[in-house]
Amino acid sequence: MEVVGNEALAPLEKLKNDFSKGFQYYLDRSTPHVMHRWLGTLGGAAIYLLRVYFVQGFYIVTYGLGIYILNLLIGFLSPKVDPELELMDGAALPTKETDEFRPFIRRLPEFKFWYSISKALGVAFLMTFFSVFDVPVFWPILLCYWLVLAFLTMKRQIMHMIKYRYVPFTVGKQKYGDKMRSPTSRGL
């Protein structure tokens, strides 16, 4: 009888494996398309907020989603090696003007940040279809509490950035203008 059970599971395992491979293929292909991924997630967030607005409920789910996204944001803005928490192994942020430049490496990479937010939005959206998650709360208090929490958390993170002199954002490769070129590089 166990053989029959394993034979019945084999097609399900194959289907699961095929789906997983296909999903990973498209996830890998989406990696270089940063703007499109974030626009899609922004669209998903707008749909979720419209659902919560029209249903007039699920504020506790939205509050939990907001706390989770705030936690992800802190990981996204934090360096991989935090000078306050870990011993220096030579891979630390420069703290003085004379220190050597080291590139900023995030604790939570951009792709994982996006993927985690997208999954959280999907789960929260699915939760809005089950009334067990619609806990009655007074939403303005939750909103005020979340705003205070976000303000204090971001204040602490910005103070950390100022103290250790790092900026977690880069716009692209630095370009040099004519003023920075030497006369020999211009062919003179």
From TrEMBL:
<keyword id="KW-0812">Transmembrane</keyword>
<feature type="transmembrane region" description="Helical">
    <location>
        <begin position="38"/>
        <end position="54"/>
    </location>
</feature>
<feature type="transmembrane region" description="Helical">
    <location>
        <begin position="60"/>
        <end position="78"/>
    </location>
</feature>
<comment type="function">
    <text>Involved in the retrieval of endoplasmic reticulum membrane proteins from the early Golgi compartment.</text>
</comment>
<protein>
    <recommendedName>
        <fullName>Protein RER1</fullName>
    </recommendedName>
</protein>
<dbReference type="InterPro" id="IPR004932">
    <property type="entry name" value="Rer1"/>
</dbReference>
<feature type="transmembrane region" description="Helical">
    <location>
        <begin position="137"/>
        <end position="154"/>
    </location>
</feature>
<dbReference type="GO" id="GO:0000139">
    <property type="term" value="C:Golgi membrane"/>
</dbReference>
<keyword id="KW-0472">Membrane</keyword>
<keyword id="KW-1133">Transmembrane helix</keyword>
<comment type="similarity">
    <text>Belongs to the RER1 family.</text>
</comment>
<dbReference type="GO" id="GO:0005783">
    <property type="term" value="C:endoplasmic reticulum"/>
</dbReference>
<dbReference type="GO" id="GO:0006890">
    <property type="term" value="P:retrograde vesicle-mediated transport, Golgi to endoplasmic reticulum"/>
</dbReference>
<dbReference type="Pfam" id="PF03248">
    <property type="entry name" value="Rer1"/>
</dbReference>
<dbReference type="GO" id="GO:0006621">
    <property type="term" value="P:protein retention in ER lumen"/>
</dbReference>
